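User: Modeling request: complex.
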Amino acid sequence: MAEKGEILMEVKELYKNFGVTIAVDHVDLCIRRGEILGLIGENGSGKSTITSIIAGIHQATSGQMFYMGEKWKPGTSLEASKRGVGIIVQEVGTIASISVAENIFIGEYKHFKKGPFIQKKKMNREAGEVLKNIGVEGIDPSKPTFTYNIEQRKLIEIAKIMAAAPELILVDETSTALSESGRKIMYEMIHNATQSNKAVVFISHDLEELMEHCDRLTILRDGKVIDNIERNNFDPDDIKRKMIGREMATEYYRSDYDGYSEEVVLEADCITTMENLLCFNLELHKGEILGIGGLSECGMHTLGRALYGLEDVVDGEVRITSSNTVVDRPDTAFKNGMGYVSKNRDRESLELDASIRANIQSTGYKINRILGPFISSKKERDYAGRQVDALEIKSNSINQPVRTLSGGNKQKVVFGKWIAEDADILILDCPTRGVDIGVKAAMYNLIYSMKKAGKSIIIISEELPELCGMSDRLLILREGKISGSFLRSDGYDNEKLIEAMI
Amino acid sequence: MKKNKIISTALSAAKAISIPIIIWVIFEILDRAVTGLGVINTVADVKTLLRNLITSYAFAMAINANLSGGRMDLSIGGQMYVGVIFGGTLALNLGWGGIGILLCAMFIGGLCGLLIGELFIHIRILPMVLGLGMTLVFECICFAINNQQGVTFFGKAGTEILSSVSFIIIVALLLLAVTTFLFQYSSYGYKLRAIQGSQKLASDAGINIFSNCVFCYIIAGVLAGCAGVFETAYKGGLTPVLGMGSSGVVFTNMFPMMLGIWIGSFINNTSLGILVGSLSIRILIIGLSRLGLGTSTQNLLLFSMFLVFMIINTNKSKIAYRRARKKRIALAKKTRADMAALEEMPALQN
Amino acid sequence: MQNPELLKKPGLTLADRIDRIKSKNSFSLLFPFIVLVFIVLLFGVLTKMEFYKMSVIISIFNQSLIVGTIAVGVSFIYSTGDIDFSVGNVMGLAATIGALSYQFTNNMVVLIMVTVAVGTLLMLFNCTLSLIFNVKSAMVAIIAMILYGAITTELVGVDTLKVDYILCRALESDGFRYVSFILYFVIAVVIFHYTAIGRKLRFIGGNEECAKQSGISFRKSKYIGFLIAGIGVGLAGVFQIARSGSVTSSVGSGMGMDVMLATVLGGMSIFGGAKSNAYSGFLGALTVSALNKGLLMVGISASIIQGVRGLIFLLLVFLNSERPSTLPSRQQF
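Assistant: Request completed. Predicted assembly structure:
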C-alpha cells in the first residue's frame, strides 16, 4: 500500500565523474511518497546530473540507488519510465515532425499494433484523454507537433510522462519553458500527484517558486549535499548563502546612480516587423544601460533582433544616429560598431566545433590585419588571449573546441568576442541565462565598466531582478508595445513593473 | 464531416493525376505540330512507357528510402549492377525465368543494401563519402564475374514475362502497396519518422536508430535490384562499367523523385506521389523525343525544366511570405497614419 | 583538480588511446602526409625502387595535376558546407569553349583566357542558383552536371575538337603547367590561410547563423569562394586541353567525384567547417595518383585497381574521422 511518507527512492553515496570533472560527489538523498522535494544549487552543483542518473539517462560511476526497496539501476530512460520513474527534461523533449499522439506514446507504440498495422485512431483517442487529464486544452492529438509552439510542446511532453503513470516524477528546470498558464498546469499536476501519494523532485533556479511549492529543499554545491531544509524553516537568505558558500557580495548588481548622456546613438523609428512589433519607437543614449523586459512573448527578443538587422523590418527604420546609417542587415550593424549576443547561445552565438581562439577572433578579421588583406597570426593570438585572461575563461588550452566548455565559460567566450572588438553599441539578449552566480557577478561588473567607458548597452532579459539591478532606464513591453517606462533614479517598484508586464 | 473529407481527398487526387495528363496534352499538341507524331502512337509505345515507368518508379523509391533520412547514397547504381548481374546470372543458371530473376536480383540487391547499411552504422563516415567508396567497390565486383561480360536477358527463355504489360502493372501495384504500408502504417514507418525528427530523442525513447537505418538501406537495395531487372530486360543486357558510371541512375531519377515527393505531399502518400511523378516525367521524356531533337538537346531541355521546378518548389513558401509581408506593410502604414492623426488632435484642441 | 582515485584506475584501453591520438589537432593535419609518405615508401619497396624513377614521379604528378587544381579551388566551396560535384563538367564545358575559341582565333592566349573565364562564369552561375534561388547545392550540382555535359556534347558533336598539337606540347614541356599550377596553389593557400576569406568561409561552414551575427557577409564570401574555385576549374581546363591536344564530348565527366574523393582523402571533410584547408585536395590527388600508379606497377589488373582504391579510400577516411555517437545525416533538398 502506497503511504504518504514512505520512502520511494533512496540514493546512497552517489558518485559521478565526467573525465576529471566530478559532477556528483557522494550524495545521499531520500525521496518520500506524497512529498515534493526541491533541488537547488548553482550551475554545476550536480542537480541535473542526479536526476538524470535516477531517470536512467546517465549511469553513475559508483553508489547505490533503491527504488521501492529494491536495487535500482536503469540502463535507459525508457527502462526507467516503464518502471514508473519519469523525467521532464530541461531541453526539448518532443519530436516536431511526428504527431502529438505519436509523441505521447513514443515508447509504447507496440500497445497500438494490430498485426503489422498501427491503429492511429485509437492512439489519437487515448492521447486526447491523457491531455484532458492533466488539464491541457486546445491541442489536437492528430496534428503534427511542429504546429504547436514551444510551451505547448512542453505540455505535450508533460502529457507523455504522465501517460506512463509514473510513481516518481522528476521535473528539471521546466518552468522556464512555460508561461503563467502553463506553469499553473504543471503545479496542479505535481500537487495532484503528491496527493495520490506519488513523489516529485523539482529542480528550478527560481527560489520563490521552490519555496512556494516544495515540502523539502535540498541544497547542493559542487556536487555535494550542503543541507536539507524543511518547509517551515525556509529562509531565502540562509538558502542563498548555503548555495554559494559565501556571503553574497552586496555589489552583485550596480550600486551607483550614474546617469547617461543625452546623445542618442541608436534609434528605432516606427519599426514594424512581421510579428510582434507594430510602429515601435525607441531611442538609445550614449553611456546608457537600457533594460527591456516583459513576458516571454512580448516582442522583446524580436526587438533585439530587429535592432541588429536580423529581423525583416517591413516599415520604418533602425538608424545609427551619428552616421544616419540604416541598419537592415547584420553586417551593416557590425561594420558600424554594433554587437549582438543572442539568447540561443549554442545555436547562434558560437561555433561549437571551432576553438575558443577561432570564436573570439571571428570579430577581429579587419582589426588583426597587417599588410593589406593579410592577417597576422600573432595579432590574432593576442586578440583572443587578452580576452581569455581578462575574463578568466577556464580551459585547458585556447585551441580546444568551445563545445567542451561549461555554460558560463561559453558565455564568457561570447562576451570576449564583442569586447575585443570594442563594440560601441551592444545588444544583450538573456546574457546570464544558464550562467552561475560567480560568473554573473563578473559579467555585471563588465557591463558596468563598459557603460563607464561610454558604450551603450541594451539588456533584454526575462529576469526582473537583473533588469532592476543593472538598467539606467527600464522599458516593459506587452504585446509589442511599450507598456511602461521607468528610470533608475526613481527607484524600481516591483509591483508597478509586474503590473505593466501582464 | 465525412463528406468533406471525401471531397477533399478526391480533389487532391484529381490535382495529382492532372499533372501527367497536362504534360501529355501539352506534348501531344507540340509533337503533332512539329513532327506529326503523337506522344503515344502504337501499342508498342504504351509498352515502352510502362517498362521505363517501372524502372524509374523503383529507382526513385530507392533513392527516397535514404534521402528522406538525410543520406544521399550514390552507390544505388552500383548495388543495382551487382544485384542484376549476380542475381540474374544465378537465376539463369538455375533455369529460373523472369520471376526468378526478379526475385534473385532483389534479394542480392537487398544483401548489398545490408552490407552498406551495416558498414555505415559501424564506421559512421558521411553517407555520401561511403556511397562513393562503395560504388567503386561494387562496380569492381561486377567485373569479376562472367569474364566481365555482365549478364544478358535477350533471347533467354522465360524472360519474356519481364516485358509483359500485365506483369509490369502487377509489380508496380505490389510495390505501391508494400511501400505505402511500410511508410505509413507499419512501426518501421513510425520509427523512421520519429528518427527523421530527432535522432537523439527517438533513441532515448527506445527506438533503435541503427537497425532502422540498416532497414532503410536494405529497402533501397531491394528496390534497386527490382528496377535494374526491368531496365536490363528493356535493354537486353547489362555490362559492367567503371569510373562511377553507375551513379548516373541516381541523377537521371532525381526529377521523378522530387516531383513525386511534391505530388505526394498533397495526396498524403509519398509512394503514390512518386509513381505519378515518374509517370509524368516519362511522358515528358517521350514527348521531348518526338520533337526530333538530338539526345543532348533533349537532356538539356529536361534538366532545364528540372531546374525551374526546383526553383519554384524551393521558393513557393517565399511567395506566401511576400503576400503576408504586403499585408503587414499595409497595416503598418495605417497604424502610422492613425498615430499621426492622434498627435495632431491635441494641437487642434489648442 | 585531479582526483587521486582516478589516477589509480587501470590504464586506458587501446581504443581509448587511439581516440586520444585521433582527437589531437595535429593528427588530422599530419595524417594525409603520413599516408602519402607511407604509400610512396611501400611501393618503392614492392617495385624494387622502380617506383622512384623520374618518369614515374613525373607521371604521378601530371596525373594529379588536373584533379588537384580543381580540388584546391573547390576547397573554397567545400569549406562552407556546400557540395559541388559538377566541377568536372564545368571544366569540360570551359575546355570546349576554349578550344572552339582557339579554332576561331588561332591564339593560345585567347584559349587560356576564354577557358578560365568560362570556368569562372559557370561556377558563379552555380553560386547564384544556390544563393539567390535557394536551391540546395547538391541539387544544383546534379542539374549543372547534366546541363553542362549536354551542352558540351552538343558543341563538340561527333568528332573531337582539335587544338594545335605542337602548341600543346609546347605548353606542356615549357613548364607552363607547373608554373601556373604552383602559382595558383600558392595564391589559393595564402588567400585561404592568411586572409580573412578562408576564416570566414570556415565559419560559415561551421555555424552559418553565428557567422551572420558576427558580421560576416554571407553572400559576398560565398561568391568570392566560387570565384576562386572557378579560376581553378578554368585553369584545369587549360591543362586538360594541353594534355591531349583535343577535347572529346565526354571531357570532364566523372571528375567531380574524383575531386570529392581526393578532397576527402586529403583529410578534409566535404561538409566543411573548422577543419577545412586549401591543400587537402592536392594532397589527396597525389595520393590517389601514386596509389593507382603503384598498384599498376605491382601488377594488379586494371579492373581490380578500382576496387582496391575504393577499399583503401574507405579505410583511410575511417581512420581520419571521429566516430560520432549517432549517425551522420544532412538535409539534401
